Amino acid sequence: MPEIKIPAEEVFPVLKENILVDGFHVVIDLERSHGSVIVDALHGNEYLDCYGYFATLPLGHNHPKMKDEGFRRSLMTAALANPANSDIYSQEFAAFVKIFRTLAVPDDFRYLFFVAGGALAVENAMKAAFDWKVQKNRVRGIEGGGDKILHFKDAFHGRSGYTLSVTNTDPTKTEGFPQFDWPRISTPYIEFPIDRGAVAKKEEAACAEIEAAFERDPAGIAAILIEPIQAEGGDHHFRPDFFSKLREYANRHEALLIFDEVQTGLGVTGTMWAYEQTSVTPDLICFGKKTQVCGIMSTRRIDEIKTNVFHTSSRINSTWGGNLTDMVRCARYLEIINEDGLVENAAIVGAHLKEGLNELSGDFESVTNVRGTGLLVAMDLPSGDVRNRVWQGCWDRGLAVLACGPRSIRLRPPLVFSEDQAAEALGTLREVLENLG
């Protein structure tokens, strides 16, 4: 049988006949792309990758250790069929879970659940919280309730059923689709350089909204849901003290605290999970993107209800329970991340990247609000129009970057990104800014 592949010049014509083609005008060359460099099979152009498939690519392309023959045999074995992991088990599945537990799961977390897709990870975390709160209410003699998720403005948690009610970054993604009217709280994010007085006022306002929401419906709110860093909404960062307040509210009102770490997880912030840079441990973490397979992890707080979703058959489930091929790939990624110290690399190179962006901010009035943790960094431009021109200028000069929020550029390089590549990216950004006109 021939390879399942067509000439690069036929890719867009074939796709446009069948699907909406509104992504980047690049045909990825999966064989020639390497590390943090994307090769376009259509034109032969190379791009320094600060995009990373929307932060899903931890090692870039064709990492030498991914060519290990034993790993490739395991990957092929997993790929030839797609077992229903929820109902029938395999050696490959167990090997992945063991590696994931050892290298990625913090000690405070007891339970795991796997599913395909970050939105479904968040959705199942919400279902775990609904189930928990409803049973908590019954213990107190209250029937019903437990049917709301307190969440934040500028949040992106996915586009599936329940997550449509908490995602609110762009009306195009949610408008016209049925949604629940759940408490939506103002976002007290930091703008840099920090004005502590202004941030404190924003936090006070947000806390007043949270308290009012719990007063209106104390039995209704099942969970507080937040991204440790709001990515699509504008790379919004929060003070650690604000997370401590959320922890207090969740404890006081018998709600679960859920951190959506789909984009911030697996080392990009310079720690395995972003929450580890705070003094707060959430009850549930949603993971995905760089982990390849998505899902949730839970602390033992959920065991305050013994018949929770991690103990009741079919309460949460999916046919494939993730995807075995993704699991095998994730296991190898984790081994390499651990062997090569790539979480530490993200912290070191990310610091250089942010320092360079701050230098650009000092040289160009148009660059403001530089922020970042590890390799998850961003900057603001004066307007959406200027941001779009900078974005296009970067791509035209071979630097793949992303937009976010109303006027931000965000960088999402892989964990293997080097200091030399950071310097190259900063040089390209400088050139673009110098030529804005």
UniProtKB/TrEMBL annotation:
EC numbers, comma separated: 2.6.1.36
Enzyme class (EC, first level): transferase
Keywords, in A-Z order: Aminotransferase, Pyridoxal phosphate, Transferase
GO molecular function, one term: pyridoxal phosphate binding
One of the GO biological process terms: gamma-aminobutyric acid catabolic process
UniProt cross-references to Pfam families, sorted A to Z: Aminotran_3
SUPFAM superfamilies the UniProt entry points to: PLP-dependent transferases
Cofactor(s) for this UniProt protein: pyridoxal 5'-phosphate
Keyword match Transferase: yes
Keyword Magnesium: no
InterPro entries documented for this protein: Aminotrans_3, L-lysine_6-transaminase, PyrdxlP-dep_Trfase, PyrdxlP-dep_Trfase_major, PyrdxlP-dep_Trfase_small
Family: Belongs to the class-III pyridoxal-phosphate-dependent aminotransferase family.
NCBIfam families per record: LAT_fam
Protein name (database record): L-lysine-epsilon aminotransferase
